[in-house]
Amino acid sequence: SPQFVPNNELISYRKQHLGKSLSLQYKVPIKMVRGDGVWLIDQQGKKYLDTVNNVAHVGHEHSAVVKAGQEQMALLNTNSRYLHENINELAQELIETLPPELNVLHFVNSGSEANELAIRMVKATTGQRDIIASEIGYHGNSNMCIDISSYKFDGKGGSGAPEHTHIFPLPDAFRGKYRGDDAGEQYAAEVQKCIDTIHQKERGVGALIVEPIISCGGQVELPQGFLEKAYERVRNAGGLCISDEVQVGCGRVGKTFWGFQLHNVTPDIVTIGKPLGNGHPIAAVACTQEVADAFANGMEYFNTFGGNPVSCAIATAVLRTVKREKLQENALEVGEYLKTELQQLAQEFPIIGDVRGQGLFLGFELVDSEMNPLADQTSYLANRMKEHGILMSTDGPDHNVLKIKPPIVFSKENAQDLITYLQKILKEDFMKTH
Ligand code: PMP
C-alpha cells in the first residue's frame, strides 16, 4: 500500500506554504484518496456518502467521463484556434438544452471566468457598468466577481458594496425582509429601487445577475413571480439579465434542465460551471446572437485553455451521461422523495424551521421557537454526520442552513440513509433547544 504523509504534516505544510486564506472543512480535516459515484473514500478506506459535491455531477470518477478525457488527452490537446469537432459537439449539446434565443457559446475554465466574461458582455452590449445583484449572492473569485458578490464584500474582510454594485435584499420568504404571499412582488420592487438609484446617479442599468436558487444565501428559492417581474423591470430600464447556473444547472433541479426554467423567463446570458466538467475545469457562457455580436467589437477574445478538445470531450460526456442515465429524472424523483422525508422530519423535530429547494438542490434551516438561527447546532449536526460517514455542508448568512446537493446519481437508498442518521443525531442532547 502507498506511503501516506500523516495528516498533521499535510496541515502544517499547508499553513506555511499554501494560501493563508484557504480553509479546511471540518474540525478534524479529512484526506480523501478516491471517489466513486456518491462516495468519497479516505486514506483508511472509510467510505463517506457525499451530499455536498454538486461538481461531481454524474458521480465521482464516472467511467464514461474519465474515458472521454483519457482518450482525448492521449490524442491531442490544443487551443481553440484550430478546428475541432469536440468544441462544436459540446456547443451543440448545450444548445439543445437551452431556449432557441440562447445559441452562442464561449468556453472558459471556471464559474468565475464565466461571470467575468458575462459582465464584459454586459458592458459591451449596454455601455453600462452598474450591476444589480442579490444580498448574500456569490458569483466568483475574480475582481469583478467579488465586486458583485455581497457574500464576500459584506462579510469578513470585505468593505461593502462598490459604487457600481446595487444590492437588493435576499429574497428569502422564510426569514427575509418580506415573507408573505406578495414576497415576489415586494422583492421585485426592491430591484426597482436599485434601478431608481442608478438613474438618480444619472447612469444606466447594465444587468441583473441572480442564481435561480441562491446557494450561499442558504439554498433560497426565489419567491413566486419574483424573477419574471425583476427581469421585466431590468429590461424596461435597458439592462440585461444573467442567470448564474454555476451551482444549479445541468439537470440538478429535476423539473427542468436549467434553474431559470423553473420560472417564466429567458435570460440574455447564462453562466455554466461546476457540473459541466464533473470536476474537470470547464465552464461556459451562453448568450443571444445580439449579445455575442456586441461583444465581438473587433477585439479578439482569446482563452488559452477554454474550449480545448480534452475539456470539451469531458463536458460532452457529462451531458450525454445525464441524458443516457436519465439523471435529471433521477434528481426529480429522489429529490422529491428526500424533500418529503425532510418535511416529515421537520414535523418530528421543530428545530427544522424550513425545508426548501428543488430536485437534488435542497436545504433545511435550524431555528429556535422564536425563529432565531441556530449556528452551533448546524455545525454540530454537520460534524456528527461526518462521524457517521455522511458529508454535509452548511451555509447561509447566519450559518444555520444544511445544504444537500449530492452527485445526481444519488439514490432513494442513499436518501434513506441520510434521513436515518439525521433522525438519530437530531435526537442528541446538543440538538435539544425546545
Ligand atoms: N457562481 C456561483 C453561484 C458559485 O457558487 C460559484 C462557486 N462557488 C461561482 C460562480 C464561481 O465558480 P468557480 O469557483 O468555478 O470560479
TrEMBL record:
GO terms for molecular function: transaminase activity. Keywords: Aminotransferase, Pyridoxal phosphate, Transferase. It comes from Pseudotenacibaculum haliotis. It comes from the Bacteria. The keyword Nucleus does not apply. This is Aminotransferase class III-fold pyridoxal phosphate-dependent enzyme. Belongs to the class-III pyridoxal-phosphate-dependent aminotransferase family.
